[in-house]
Each structure stands twice: as structure tokens, then as C-alpha cells.
Amino acid sequence: MTLALAPTDRPFLPRGVRLAADKVRGGTVLLCPEKAIALDAIGEAILSRVDGSTSFGDIVAGLASAYDAPAEQIAGDVQRFLTGLRARMYLAVRP
Amino acid sequence: MTVPPPIAMLAELTHRCPLACPYCSNPQNLLGREAEMTTAEWADAFRQAAALGVLQLHLSGGEPAARPDLAELTAAAHACGLYTNLITSGIGLTPRRLDALQAAGLDHIQLSLQGNSAGLADWISGYKGGFDRKMKIAAEIKAREFPLTLNAVMHRHNLDDLERTIEMAVEMGARRLEVACVQFHGWASRNRAQLLPTRAQTEAAKRIVAEAEQRLRGVLAFDFVPPDYYADYPKACMGGWGMAGLNIAPDGTVLPCHAAQTIPHLNFDNVHSKPLAAIWYEGAAFNAFRGTDWLPQPCRSCDRRETDFGGCRCQALALTGDAGATDPVCRKSPRHQTVVELLETGGSNTETAFFYRSAAC
User: B51 with B5: CB under 8 angstroms?
Assistant: First the structure.
């Protein structure tokens, strides 16, 4: 199956996946089953908007406005990042 | 060299286990109940681990459900922000205990699978009725929507059933399947002739996993640990010795990996006598094979030295008698012929009985 998100899809972190502050190293980590992923500023900005109610399209629009960047470019970056997480089952989607 | 803080800790809460799998990763010298740390001692170790930088805590054993205080230990780990993962055969868990673990904040369950039928699984685990009990608890785990990984330990006797194993993972509602081919340490090294898969099985498994990974995208994620005897290069054991993870044995002994006690000249510290941070940063055992300065040739001048750090120390010891040698799995190792010969002689289909794990030995 294709894991690409449609503009109306609403992504969320499923149970067992959560964001946490890394008190020792600093920054934010995505804690997943048997895996911890250190997030860069972009990853953190994307996942802070992933709440199960905001659509993929709105996440992209929000980031484009916040970072003053073209929406098409942002859409590609966000799609790549979220599809990668979805392939590992670290991200789920509501239509 | 700057030593990073550890990311993951394996807590071997107990060596007790109703199963007797012939590839158990526990040492052959099993500790009894009287040697185990108390609830409060473990909780203190968890607090120290979180303060040191550990993010992931694996509650393991033996069978961790053999500890009546498992939910209490989980709650203690959860309270200090650790991601808690229960590594279990399912034996000893009940619906009521699963509810208690859920309330305690357990994040994830890794359920082991010895085989995909009662006949095969109970023969491998040496525990009659174990498969049926496991399947019952798997249904309870699914009903509670616990995040689940199925850990299928594979070897010559079940690798041909891989396709059915993948189906079972989907049926159980697992999000992830670990296809973990047996590594030959501890008990497994005594059963190598029985367990070593053939090259044809190994190649077939790679094809099956690659195909299923595509077909089940978005349904099931895969982690495949191929049998490293057939690999060209060794694995970076533990992500590098003393670089990413640590292990606490039931009695509080702190180890760089679960098999490290097979290396006779190392001295291990215990959380009873030293803070965990001091053990991690300054302990002799952790510094013995840390980084690249200690590497022998050909590793020292190899461009893979930062990738695999010379491979597995326990395997080097087991196969060459020298824990400081290049892992002989590596094709560049001067002792690689040892592995080639093992594959030639050990890969033949011998039908000897398993040497089961047991406390009496």
C-alpha cells in the first residue's frame, strides 16, 4: 500500500509512541517501541503539529507560514518524514 | 574519546523462567531467586539510569512475569520517565496482571514465539502447554490494544515456517515482527549443531522478509537479524561496546552486554557498591573494549572500524579464545576459516537432542 498522506488525512502518534524532552542530552526525542529518535528542529516542528485533528494540508500550511517557505517544498519534506515514520508504524492516520 | 550517555538498559529482573529454550541468552550459570534485587533496589537502579540518560528500559529475564512485583517495577520505571518495554514469553501473565501493567504505564510488549504450532513450540521451549497459554495471553494483549512486537526466534527447525509466522504476527495485531535468528552465545553455543540454519534457509528467509516488508507496508514493520555466521561483516554488538546500552543482571551486576560474563578477565561492578554513572563512565569492564583505540589489526586500519567496532567480543572469545580479536565472522579476520569450517561441519543435519537450559547444570 502507499503510505503517502492525502491533504485531508489527519496523522497521529499511536499508543506506544510519544514525544519526550531529553533531559540529559537536551532537545526532544520520539520514543517508540524499542527505539528512541532524536529530533532536529524540523522534525520537532512537524511532530508538534501532529495531534490527530490537524490535517496534513493544514500542517503544511502552518509550517509554510511559520517558516515563510513555499508550501510545495514544505509538503515534500513533511511527506517524506511522516511516510518514513508510518512505514515503521510510528505514525497512524485518520481519514 | 567522549563517552556518550547510554540510551537503553536491559534489566534482567530474574533468571527464573518456566521455559527451557536451548538458545537462551542468559548465562549458563543461572542465579536463583535469593540473589535477586528487591523492588526498592531495582527502582533505585531505574532512577539512576534515567538520570544518566537512559530513555528505553527493557524489562526482561528469565521470565519477568516470574517477579510478583512486575507491575510495581513498571510503575517505578514509568515514574522516572523511562519508556518501558516488557520482554516476555507470556507465561505467568494473566488478564488481571495485564490490567495492572496497563495501569502502571507499560508502553510496549515484546512477546516471544518459539514456533508456530504447539508441537514445535513446546518441543523447542521444553515446556508442555506453553504454546496454548501464550496464544491465550496474546489474545488478551490484543484485546487491550497494547503496542506489540512479536519476536520470533528462528533457527533450523522453524525458519521454513517463516511465512506462517508473519501471518501470525498480523493476526495477533503486532505492529512489528522481529525475525531474530539465533546468535550463538551461552546456551545456544552448546546447541549449535542442532540450531544452525542452512545457507539455503538463510537466503530464503531474506527473500521472504523482503517480499513481506513490501506487501505489508503500513500493517507490519520488520526487523530482521540474519544469522551472522553467513554474513560478510560482523555486527556492531550493542551498537558498540559501552556506547549505547547496558545490562543489569538479577543480582545488580552491571554488564556491557548480556553475554559479557563469558569473558573471564573482566571485572564487573555492582549497583550495590557503586553509582551507575561511575560504572558506565569509569568501570573497567565498560572501558575494556570501548571506542577504537583497543582494536587489533586488521580492524585498526579498516574503514569499517567506526561501523562495527571489530564486531562481537563474546563471539571473538567463543570462536578464537581471544576476546580482543577481530570477530571471526568478518571475512577479513585471519581466523575467518573457523566460521567457514563450522558452517561446513555444523550445517549438516544432525539429529542430536537439545541441551536444554536448566538451573541444575
Answer: no
The conformation of residue B228, written as its DSSP 8-state character, comes to G
CATH number of A10-89: 1.10.10.1150
Reading the block at residue B37, the C-alpha cell is: 534485587
Low-confidence ranges of chain B (pLDDT < 50): 361
Q: How far apart are CA B190 and CA B197, in angstroms?
A: 15
Mean pLDDT of the residues in chain A? 96
CA dist., res. B109 & res. B105, Å (int): 12
Instruction: Give the whole-angstrom CA distance, residue B319 versus residue B357.
Output: 21
The pLDDT of residue B344 is 82
Q: CA–CA distance from B66 to each of B19, B31, B62, B74 (Å)? A: 11, 13, 8, 14
Q: Which residues of A touch B219 (CB under 8 A)?
A: 1
B68-119 pLDDT, tens per residue? 999 999 999 999 999 999 999 999 999 999 999 999 999 999 999 999 999 9
Closest Cα in chain A to B215: A1
pTM of the entire predicted model: 0.96
A-B contacts (CB, under 8 Å): 64
State the nearest Cα–Cα gap between B199 and chain A, in angstroms. Answer: 28
- Nearest chain B alpha carbon to A14: B147
| Pairwise CA distance, residues B102 & B143, whole Å | 12
Residue B224, all three cell numbers: 530482521
Distances from the Cα of B237 to the Cα of A38, B4, B245, B286, B348, angstroms: 21, 16, 10, 13, 27
Q: Where are the beta strands (DSSP E) in chain B?
A: 8-12, 56-60, 83-88, 108-113, 148-154, 176-181, 221-225, 245-248, 254-255
Number of helical H runs and strand E runs in chain B: 14, 9
Residue where the block lists cell 561496546: B241
Q: What is the pLDDT of residue B115?
A: 97
B118/B139 Cα distance (integer angstroms): 16
Per-residue pLDDT at B361: 43
DSSP strands (E only) in B188-295? 221-225, 245-248, 254-255
